[in-house]
Amino acid sequence: MDKIVIEHLSLRYADGAESLRDINLNVPANQVTVIFGPAGGGKSTLLRTLNRLNDLTDLAQQTGRVLINGENILDPDYDVIELRRKVGMVFSRPVTLPLSIYENLVYGLRMAGETSKTRLDEAVEWSLRQAVLWDEVYDRLDTPANDLSGGQKQRLCLARTLALRPEVILLDEPTSALDPVSTAKIESVLQDLKEQFTIILAPHNTQQAARTADFAAFFLQGELIETAPGKDIFMRPREKRTQEYVEGRFG
Known about the structure:
It contains ten helices and ten strands. By secondary structure, it is of the alpha/beta class. The protein has a domain at 2-96 and 167-246: P-loop containing nucleotide triphosphate hydrolases (Rossmann fold), CATH 3.40.50. The protein has a six-stranded mixed β-sheet with strand order 6-7-8-3-9-10, with helices on both faces. A four-stranded antiparallel β-sheet has the order 2-1-4-5, with helices on one face. β7, α7 (180-193) and β8 form a beta-alpha-beta unit. α3 (101-111) packs across α4, α3 (101-111) runs parallel beside α6 and α4 crosses α6. The longest helix has 14 residues, at 117-130. The mean pLDDT is 94.
């Protein structure tokens, strides 16, 4: 079953840079879909399209449709605030608010109108457990989030996204600034989370892509070159350009 259906998506910025050209992609539910390729291929642009962060940039033209649960999220009348609750995003570098760990986690819920202390407490524990951070911070939730290590901050950002109970989680190179141990923890978390969420990951290298992908899509200079189950695209790519990239001949 497909959670997201992208149809003939093209996007061009006002400076003339065309970031995406006629993208057609079906994203399966409850899997880790990896979008990979060289820098400048359009991966981040695609992620930002899926929760309409591109609305905040200088777009010259955008055509096509992006259907989530059958609804076109690019429709001008679509509720963008609701979309961003449904489609959460974690960026490459963890950005914590200058607040306590607890207040970082409940910030979005408070903004959404939640006032029940019981429900806020439950959301904090649930999201921290999902992000495999609860055992490390449960006894210091009132301490500043900035006191956490880099790996802990990134898991906190993931937990903050999870606290809103999104349907889709977007991750843009979420481990690029982390050490191998923290990276392994994040990758392990994603394999557990896919049982509840649809995950789209832009990894920071091909090795991570191969380790994590249930389904994969190779992007090159704004074009979608090939899609396949993860084990197939990295072991038996059909397209020559995919094979050359996977083998490290460019990129």
